[in-house]
Amino acid sequence: MDMKALKNTPPWDWPEGTPEKLVSVLRDKQAAEPDRVLATEMAGDFTVVNDELVEALLAILRNSEESQKVRARAAISLGPVLEYADTEGFEDPDDVPISERHFQQIQESLRELYMDPQIPKEVQRRILEASVRAPQDWHKNAVHAAYASGDDAWKLTAVFCMRFFRGFDDQIVKELDSRNPDIHLEAVLAAGNWGVRAAWPHIAALIRSGRTPKPLLMAAIEAVPSVCPQEASEVLSGLIESDDEDIIEAVQEALAMAEDPSGDDEDGEDDTFPE
Distance between CA 34 and CA 29 in Å, rounded? Predict the structure, then answer.
C-alpha cells in the first residue's frame, strides 16, 4: 500500500487494512519522514481513526526524538476527533470512533505535554490548538498567555482558540484590524462563531469591498447569520451574481441560516488549523 497513492485517494475509497497500515508507518522509526507525515495527517480522518491510531499519535507526540514536523502534525490530527467526542458524548459509544478512556487519555496527555517546558514552540502551539477543541478549565489562561506573549505566531494560535471560548469579544474585535492576514482571518471566523455584534461594520465592509481575498470573504459571508442576520439579504445580495460557485453557495447557505436562526447545521465542522 503506497502512502502517496493512498493520499491521492478519497478517504471513503481507502482499502481495507488502511488503519493497520497507518499504525505500522507511525510506529516505524525507519520509514521515510514524508511517509510518516502523511500517515500522521491521515490517521485523524474519521474513516480510520480509532483507539490504536490515537495511541500511536500520542506516542509520537511524547517522543522528543521525533521531528517537530511529525509531532506537530500528530497533535493536529487529534483535534477533530477530540472535538467530535466532546460534542457527542459517550451515551452511545458506537457513535464515537474512539473510546471514552482514550478521549480522556488525549486530554490528559495534551495538557501534560503543553505544560512541559521542553516541548518545542511549534509543537506546543499545535497541542494547544488541538486540545482547545474540547475546552477545559486550563485553556482560558493558556489562551490569554498566548495572546499576551507579543509573539505573532502565538497570537495567531490564541485567536484561533478564541473560536472555542466565550469571553474574548474585545480581543476578537481588536484583531479584525490586524495587519497579519492569518490573524485577521481567524478573528473573522471567531466573530462569526460567537456572533460578535461589534464586528458587524468590519464584516459588512469586507463583503462590500470587492477586493477582499476569497478565504476572508468566505469567512465574512459565513459570519453574517450569527453576527447580524437581519442585514443578511441587503449585504449579501450583491454577491448572488458572482462568477464563483463557492461564493454563490456560501451566500445561499448564509441567507438560509439567517432566515432560520436555529441553524441545524450539523456538518459545519472546520478542521483547519492556522499556519
Answer: 12
